[in-house]
Amino acid sequence: MALGRKVRELRRLVPGAAVLPAERLLLRTADYIVRLRVRVELLRALSELIAVTNHGGIIGGGGGHHDGDDATSNNL
User: Fold this and answer.
1) Where are the domains of the chain?
2) Distance of alpha carbon 2 from alpha carbon 13, whole angstroms
3) Alpha-carbon gap, residue 20 to 40, rounded angstroms
4) What is the SS3 assignment for 28?
5) Which end of the chain has the lower number of beta carbons within 10 A, N or C?
6) Global confidence as pTM
7) H or E, element range at 30
8) Residue 76: what pLDDT?
C-alpha cells in the first residue's frame, strides 16, 4: 500500500483528522489509539463486573441481610 493511500485511510478512520497535515495526523492517530485502548480496558472491566454480579455477586446473589442465625430464628 502506498504511503499516500495509507495517509488517506488514516484521515478517513481517525475522527477530526480529515484536514490535518501529515505530522499532526500521526499525532492524532497515536492519541486516538491510546483512547481506544482505554475504552477497551474500561469495557473489559465493566464486562467482568457484570459477569460477577450476575453469577452470585452483589446483585441478586443470595447474599444480603439476615436477622439472626438459623438455629434461633426458627419459630415453629
Assistant:
1) 18-58
2) 17
3) 26
4) helix
5) C
6) 0.63
7) helix 22-54
8) 45
